[in-house]
């Protein structure tokens, strides 16, 4: 897989694995701050207690977010999780952010890695998003196409776009960490339409 180097220019949470979908969903592997991408039930149309986690979850279930997979290499082994908390932070320097729970199975790899992979998933990759969101799944098993990219970061096949980023900060935020990273390489040339996370499920764009 080619990995063009970019000039130094360039959570949202999702799923049931705490490292992946954590928009305030609470779960061992969720990876985002306040959102409801963890598939956990939340109040729909009911009145949530002001200032409660339920209020935050129920509001973010109405927020459509893009779906990404974050990867890292740790101890010679690949790690990764689905995230819907991905955000662009700055163009100069090219910074992005996402969040991850410190109880996530992927947290040790993210904590110890200097470089991470960020993959934007297409609507054809719902199964991949679910795999990387599922606790205990063999995420880099035979069914997952990937190769080592710049700085040894695992890069997934068939995504819409990817970046390799250098971690510049890990900011405490409750039981999560906000990861801020600078893009150092990438490729935006994948084909297809983006995968979205909304109301607790993966969705395609509608015309």
Explain what the structure shows:
It is a single chain. The protein has 207 residues and is mainly beta. The protein has one domain (53-204): Pnp Oxidase, Chain A. The chain is 11% helix and 35% strand. The protein has three helices and twelve strands. The strands form three sheets. The protein has a seven-stranded antiparallel β-sheet. It has a three-stranded antiparallel β-sheet with strand order 1-11-12, with no helix packed on it. It has a two-stranded antiparallel sheet with strand order 7-8. The N and C termini lie far apart (32 Å). Residues 1-45 have low confidence and may be disordered.
Core attributes:
207 residues, mainly beta, Pnp Oxidase, Chain A, globular, FMN binding, monooxygenase activity
List the helices and strands and how they pair.
Blueprint lengths: L52 H8 L4 E2 L1 E7 L2 E7 L3 E4 L4 E7 L5 H6 L2 E6 L5 H8 L12 E3 L5 E3 L4 E13 L2 E12 L7 E4 L2 E4 L3
Antiparallel strand pairs: 1-11, 2-3, 2-6, 4-5, 5-10, 6-9, 7-8, 9-10, 11-12
Shape: globular
Strand order of the largest sheet: 3-2-6-9-10-5-4
Radius of gyration: 16 Å
Report mean pLDDT, rounded to a whole number.
81
| Number of structural domains | 1
Residue ranges: pLDDT <50 for 5 or more in a row?
A: 1-45
Cα(first) to Cα(last) distance is: 32 Å
Task: Please provide the count of β strands.
Answer: 12
CATH superfamily: Electron Transport, Fmn-binding Protein, Chain A
What is the second-level CATH architecture?
Answer: Roll
SS field, number of helical segments: 3
The H/E string reads HEEEEEHEHEEEEEE
Structural class: mainly beta
Q: CATH top level?
A: Mainly Beta
In percent, how helical is the residue content? 10-25%
Work out the strand percent: 25-35%
The CATH topology assignment is: Pnp Oxidase, Chain A
Q: What kind of sheet is the major sheet?
A: 7 strands, antiparallel
